[in-house]
Amino acid sequence: MQRIPAKDIDEYIAAFEGKVQASLVKLRATIKKAAPKAEEKMSYAIPTFFLGEKNLVHFAAYEKHIGFYPAPSGIKAFAKELMPYKTSKGAVQFPLDKPLPLTIITKIVKFRAAENLAALKRKK
User: Fold this and answer.
1) Which pTM was predicted?
2) Residues 6+ apart with CB under 8 A from 50
3) For residue 2, is pLDDT > 70?
């Protein structure tokens, strides 16, 4: 498991092995495809995608799950589809022993991207 804070997402993912690393690679690719203009960075010592002057989504690997953090609005908007997973106000846990729900993740990322861009337009 990750012990030393990674300098970037590549280093973060490289610190894991096997299924965990493969899941992180898939998750990253899914986010990039759903929000191609989002920038990658590390925030709160975890991989983060940033769009429109705000964090878009974060993710992290844990012993038994992948944590996905699309902000409270992302959880609320997809509450029905996320029912099979453990959720909290701003997070969802995808168990490592099950495939990542890439379709749901894509929908959430696109939703969050639209939110961030709308907020940016309102600001200007």
Assistant:
1) 0.93
2) 38, 39, 40, 41, 43, 56
3) no
